[in-house]
Structures are given as structure tokens and as C-alpha cells.
């Protein structure tokens, strides 16, 4: 019981000065309010099954991603687009991702390696480590019995062969075939397939028929033989480039015997092809269709098809149409297509904007490394990224990227183990030592922090059953 004098004093004080004692209300919040305040850390993860990529920057949690585990639940399609300027970590991400996927026994990977130095592709070190010889497509080497891929390989259906021939011609000409040229090509292709049975038909057979069509073909359409020959002349000139021009040797003979598509990793080394020439999209079209008919099979394996410099595919309406079919077809057979490009403007502002949009729509996973502010805003508009992610992209440092997995957006730090580092950093700029002691000290501190953070990656990979040596 309070002292009566204290009660009287309190009453007198309140009368003179008003109530001086306040009551603190309890703090209450809802889940929605917490997510609004702590947006970067509120999004749920992708689960703990699959390949570990690194850790989320804001929450520090491990970041695990696998399109085969997520497909059908969190992902409508298993395809993946990787964007960013050079030097920010795209290549390192691709290589560690493939190496970690290969630790699962049911994985197979094909890489189109379009970059390199010292006469070999970027994936050469990894191929050597795994005991694999890259399939090196080189016009010069092909003349001395190098690797050949035959667009008329019997393993490709006749319909697929004709579609591939049209694509090669349309890419080289820069426009679609008209009805007359298309008819001349169709007639020549049909005649070659019907009459040559003792060996594989080759492109030179098609060129010969275009130049000297059979009279029966003209009679069947009630046209003059000279008209049919004239209709096929431009087509013959384009194909002649693959037979006797600057691209000769790679596609003008039977497919090389012994190409092993059952290995865990297959690397097509395209680094000897001029990346800015018309040869590159033609080459990718031929390889893509050839793989569609020889590599993708209805078995239980999960396949990854990784394409560097993928703008050659996406930015050509004719090649993009072929790959659209491949992507749709591949979803039913466990195929994940990984397209690596530098700038989205490379593919959305070109002649193949419609086809590019269709392929981008199929890529439910998007990884964006550092870009300039204008490029980041354009990328954000096309991909539908949230504003906070767009604002972060120009500030990202190498190895850190914005990941958008079907609307689940995170900022992720890619972690590389010491065993992976010599294999994934093939650029001299990344491997040679700095001449500035201050830079060396800073890099040493960064490496020490990365090694501590990557410890759980090494442990995770050690627990996986490996299929590689």
C-alpha cells in the first residue's frame, strides 16, 4: 500500500503540471510489413537440392540452383540467360556450374566454346583435366583431315536436312528464300537423297544438282529446265562457299567417325572462327541441328547445352527459329539451354527482335552481372526486373550478380574453390600477379575472405558423388 503522503504529492503535481508519466505502446508488425522493409532478405530461397552457386549477399545464406530440380515447380522452363560485360565473372560462373553439375552421374554437357587465346578455346584446360579432346572446328585444319560435320548426315531426318540447308543459305544471304529458289533447293535435295545410297550425301552433291538439275524435275512442274537452273544459281553460289570457299573442309564431307557424344562433357572449339563473320551463325546452326538429332535422346539423362557468344543464335531470325524448336523439344527430354551474351541490346534491337523475344521468354532464369546504367535500365525493362535490382546492377563488383529465377530475385556472390580456380580463370589478366604491392595486399585479403566463405562450398562438393577424374 502506497504512502498517503506520496499519493497526495502525485495528485498535487498532476493538478499543477498535468500527467507527466507516459505509457509505451507495444510494437507490432505483420509479415507483409517486414517484407516491405527488408525486401532483399525476405524472398524465400530455392531450396537445398542441386548445385551450390555461392551465397546471398544480403542474408548470407547459401544459394543453390538447379533447373532440373526446380522445373515444373518454381520454373516453367529450364533455360538460362547469362548477361554482363566482360571481366565480371560470367566465364567463371559457367565453368564452375558445369564442373559441379558433372558430379551428378545423370548429367551431360555440350559447350560451344567461341572464345579463346593461344590457339585454343577457353574450355581447353577443363577438357584436359577431364581427359576430353575438344572437337576443334577449324577451316585450315579441316583441309588436313580435320573434324567434319555433315549437314546431310543420315542421322538427321530429311525434313531436318532441308530446314538446315535453308537456314544456312538464308543466314548467308541475309534474307529468306523466295519460292523459286526454295523449289530448286527442294528438288536438288530430294534427288540427291533418292539416288545416292552407297555413301553419305554431301554438300557438293547438292551444289552439282543445283547447277545441273534433272529434266524430270522441270517437267514435273511444267517449267523450262533453264528456269530451274536459274532459280538455283544463287543457292548454289552460297553453298559453294562451304564446299570450295573460305569455310571449306568443315561441312563438305561425311561426318568424322569417332565423335563421342556419350562423354559427360563435349566441347566444340569454335575459337578459330572469326566471331564477327557470317561463318559463326552458320556454324552454330549446323552444330545445333546435328546435336538435336544425334545427342538429345529420350533417356533419363539431364543435358545442358551451353552456348557462348549466343547472340549469333538469338540475333539471326533464321538460326533463332531452329533453336526455338530445339528449346521446345528439349524441355520434354531434359535439356537446359544456357545462353551467354554481353549485352541484351545485342539481341533485342536487331532484325530478329521477334525471335529473340521468344527465346528470352523461354529463359526462366536470368543472371545479370555489372552493366552501365543505361544498359541496366534497358535490361530491366526487357526482363521485367524490380527497380531496386536495376539500380544495383551498375554498382555490382566482379563475381556478384542479380539472379532472377522466375520472379525470385536475389543478389548472389559466386564462390570459387581453390581446386576450381586454376581451371576457370583462363584470362591472363585474372592469373598474372599485380605489380603494385598495395593491390597484391588487397587481393590477398579478398582471397582470404573468399576462402573462408567458400569452405562450405568445398564441403558440399566433397559430399557429392563425382563422375569425373
TrEMBL record:
This is ATP-binding protein. One of its GO terms (molecular function) is ATP binding. It comes from Streptomyces actuosus. The keyword Methyltransferase does not apply. It comes from the Bacteria. InterPro entries: P-loop_NTPase (IPR027417), T4SS_component (IPR051162). The keyword Transferase does not apply. Keywords: ATP-binding, Nucleotide-binding.
Amino acid at each position: 500500500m502506497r504512502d498517503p503522503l506520496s499519493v497526495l504529492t502525485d495528485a498535487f503535481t498532476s493538478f499543477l503540471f498535468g500527467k507527466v508519466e507516459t505509457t509505451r505502446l507495444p510494437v507490432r508488425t505483420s509479415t507483409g510489413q517486414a517484407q516491405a522493409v527488408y525486401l532483399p532478405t525476405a524472398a524465400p530461397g530455392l531450396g537445398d537440392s542441386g548445385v551450390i552457386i555461392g551465397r546471398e549477399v544480403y542474408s548470407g545464406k547459401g544459394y543453390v540452383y538447379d533447373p532440373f530440380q526446380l522445373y515444373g515447380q518454381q520454373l516453367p522452363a529450364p533455360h538460362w540467360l547469362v548477361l554482363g560485360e566482360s571481366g565480371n565473372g560470367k566465364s567463371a560462373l559457367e565453368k564452375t556450374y558445369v564442373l559441379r553439375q558433372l558430379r551428378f552421374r545423370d548429367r551431360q554437357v555440350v559447350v560451344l566454346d567461341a572464345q579463346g587465346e593461344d590457339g585454343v578455346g577457353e574450355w581447353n584446360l577443363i577438357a584436359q583435366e577431364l581427359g576430353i579432346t575438344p572437337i576443334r572446328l577449324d577451316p585450315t585444319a579441316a583441309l588436313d583431315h580435320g573434324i567434319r560435320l555433315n549437314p546431310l548426315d543420315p542421322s538427321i531426318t530429311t525434313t531436318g536436312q532441308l530446314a538446315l540447308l535453308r537456314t544456312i543459305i538464308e543466314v548467308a544471304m541475309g534474307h529468306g528464300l523466295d519460292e523459286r529458289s526454295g523449289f530448286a533447293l527442294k528438288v536438288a535435295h530430294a534427288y540427291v537423297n533418292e539416288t545416292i545410297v552407297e555413301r553419305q550425301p554431301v554438300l557438293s552433291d547438292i551444289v552439282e544438282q543445283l547447277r545441273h538439275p534433272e529434266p524430270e524435275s522441270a517437267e514435273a512442274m511444267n517449267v523450262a529446265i533453264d528456269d530451274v537452273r536459274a532459280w538455283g544459281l544463287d543457292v548454289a553460289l552460297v553453298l559453294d562457299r562451304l564446299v570450295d570457299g573460305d569455310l571449306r573442309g568443315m561441312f563438305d564431307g561425311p561426318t568424322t567417325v569417332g565423335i563421342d557424344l556419350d562423354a559427360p562433357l563435349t566441347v566444340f572449339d569454335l575459337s578459330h572462327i572469326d566471331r564477327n563473320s557470317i561463318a559463326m551463325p552458320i556454324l552454330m546452326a549446323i552444330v545445333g541441328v546435328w546435336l538435336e538429332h544425334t545427342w538429345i535422346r529420350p533417356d533419363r539423362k539431364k543435358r545442358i547445352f551451353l552456348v557462348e557468344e549466343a547472340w549469333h543464335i538469338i540475333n539471326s531470325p533464321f538460326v533463332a527459329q531452329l533453336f526455338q524448336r530445339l528449346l521446345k523439344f528439349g524441355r520434354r527430354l531434359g535439356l537446359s539451354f544456357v545462353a551467354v551474351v554481353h549485352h541484351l541490346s545485342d539481341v533485342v534491337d536487331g532484325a530478329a527482335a521477334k525471335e529473340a523475344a521468344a527465346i528470352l521468354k523461354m529463359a526462366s532464369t536470368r543472371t545479370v552481372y555489372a552493366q552501365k546504367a543505361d544498359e541496366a535500365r534497358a535490361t530491366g525493362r526487357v526482363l521485367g526486373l524490380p527497380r531496386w535490382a536495376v539500380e544495383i546492377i551498375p554498382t555490382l563488383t566482379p563475381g556478384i550478380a542479380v539472379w532472377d529465377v522466375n520472379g525470385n530475385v536475389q543478389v548472389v556472390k559466386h564462390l570459387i574453390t581453390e581446386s576450381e580456380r586454376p581451371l576457370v580463370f583462363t584470362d591472363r589478366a585474372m592469373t598474372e600477379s599485380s605489380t603494385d604491392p598495395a593491390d597484391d595486399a588487397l587481393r590477398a585479403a579478398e582471397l582470404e575472405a573468399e576462402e573462408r566463405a567458400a569452405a562450405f562450398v568445398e564441403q558440399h562438393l566433397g559430399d557429392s558423388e563425382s563422375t569425373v577424374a
